[in-house]
Specification:
The protein has 312 residues and is mainly α. The chain contains 15 helices and no strands. It has helices at 2-27, 37-41, 45-54, 61-73, 88-123, 128-142, 145-159, 175-201, 204-211, 216-228, 230-244, 248-253, 259-268, 272-300, 302-311. The longest helix is centred in the middle third of the chain and has 36 residues, at 88-123. The chain is flat and about 85 Å long.
């Protein structure tokens, strides 16, 4: 298992280098400059040259790339152009909290409700519960989260006055955006759980357990559920990353100062260091979560652990 983990970490480092390289050179193709054209144009040529030299932008692009790689190895992602005199890590860190909070809440809510609905739909196959669950799953996948966010904001926040309609002042402000973001993972988890549960319930060992007189509840809890959640864990990794790193539309609707809105603002301003910092953070977080998901398989299904042991 250790050898497998180290090998995956090496692949992660290689992938990160490819992501950094591609993003760096593509970013340099963005139109415009990171400086306000109105103020930059009134500077003398000497002042413009001094500003470019201060940020290292007067060097050839390959030289800038080599310097950036060296700085990253030292843990230095540079200084933001938009947020003057602020380190990229500080800028991202200040926006990470709100995105992580609503993302974690959305994942937990979607996972809990989706598992329950999926299990009930499989247990009561071809009944009203099953049909209602599938309708919810279709709506959750089909309706964009920004539409759900706007509806929740209008009815629950504005019309009924139950929860705040936006901004970021206390924990209550995170409830509506979390619910809006939870619809998609809820639908996916419910659909995958139902499909896998139906397949598991037809297996021979389930039939044998029932023939031994074991109650339906024990069959579900002791045998069926555990063997049905591996596909759910597979889709849970990307869901966690996408939600925790921020949803631009939902963050804008509720005026949440998260990573999603920061990323778009920095693209508009050509804030190269922050763009690169968010890209590297997103890529690294995504690959680490996928690695943790793969390692979690061995805890759920011992056969997968044995297979990895033989491979190592």
């Amino acid at each position: 298992m250790l050898k497998y983990t180290l090998k995956r970490l090496a692949y992660i480092l290689l992938t990160l280098w490819i992501v950094i390289t591609c993003t760096f050179f593509l970013m340099k193709k963005l139109p415009g400059t990171p400086f306000d054209p109105e103020h930059f144009s009134i500077m003398s040529p000497q002042q413009q040259e001094k500003v470019l030299e201060m940020y290292g932008l007067n060097d050839p692009v390959p030289v800038q790339y080599i310097k950036y790689l060296k700085n990253i190895l030292r843990g230095d992602f540079g200084t933001s152009y938009t947020y003057v005199n602020q380190k990229v890590t500080d800028v991202i860190g200040g926006r990470l909290g709100p995105s992580a909070l609503i993302g974690i809440q959305a994942v937990l809510l979607g996972l809990a409700v989706g598992l329950v609905l999926g299990i009930l739909a499989a247990w009561r196959h071809n009944t009203a519960i099953d049909y209602v669950t599938m309708i919810i799953a279709v709506l959750g996948v089909s309706v964009p989260n920004f539409v759900a966010a706007a509806l929740l904001q209008y009815y629950i926040g504005l019309k009924w006055g139950v929860l705040p309609v936006g901004f970021w002042t206390n924990w209550a402000c995170s409830i509506l955006p979390s619910i809006a973001l939870s619809f998609s993972p809820l639908a996916q988890v419910a659909r995958f759980t139902r499909t896998e549960m139906l397949d598991v319930l037809d297996q021979d060992y389930i039939v044998t357990a029932r023939a031994k007189g074991i109650s339906q509840f024990k069959v579900l809890t002791r045998h069926a559920i555990r063997n049905s959640i591996i596909p759910v864990i597979t889709i849970l990794g990307p869901i966690v990353v996408n939600l925790m790193t921020g949803s631009l539309a939902v963050e804008n609707i509720y005026s949440i100062p998260g990573i999603g809105s920061l990323f778009v603002d920095c693209i508009k301003a050509n804030d190269y260091p922050v763009i690169m910092g968010i890209t590297v953070f997103y890529a690294a977080f995504y690959m680490l979560v996928v690695l943790l998901v793969d390692l979690a398989y061995s805890l759920i299904d011992p056969r997968i652990r044995l297979a990895k042991g033989k491979e190592d």
